[in-house]
Write a structure and sequence with these properties.
The chain is mainly α. About 50% of the residues lie in helices and about 5% in strands.
């Protein structure tokens, strides 16, 4: 009987302690920041492809893409119903105005940027 009581006591303690350590993770609903985060996802793409020497690195007359505010200004420019920024990364490499100059972004990077722009370019 004592063994059975001891087994149930240990089992009860283990169950109770496992419940105490559970972390509540609230479900995020309609939060624009839960889609694509600028600092984790978009910024590395831009830093590696746009904020390079001679382009948007802050040392030229072009927007400085090392900071969110300058990227946002560029992204907000609309032409023919689409972000000029998005348009320029999507057009073919050989077409005038293509960005980044002399290179192309991967389709997945373009999709991430498009999702970010369509979600209001959250800066979180």
């Amino acid at each position: 009987m004592k063994k059975l009581f001891l087994i149930f006591s240990i089992l009860g303690f283990l169950i109770q302690s496992s419940c105490v350590n559970d972390k509540y993770i609230p479900e995020v609903v309609n939060n624009r920041c839960d889609t694509t985060y600028y600092s984790r996802t978009i910024k590395p793409i831009i830093i590696n492809n746009c904020a390079i020497s001679g382009c948007h690195d802050g040392h030229s007359t072009l927007h400085d893409f090392n900071n969110y505010a300058e990227v946002k200004v560029e992204v907000e420019e609309i032409e023919d119903g689409e972000s000029e920024f998005l348009h320029r990364i999507k057009i073919p490499l050989n077409q005038t105005g293509h960005m980044p100059v002399g290179d192309i972004l991967s389709p997945s990077d373009i999709q991430l940027i498009e999702n970010w722009i369509n979600n209001g370019y959250p800066g979180c």
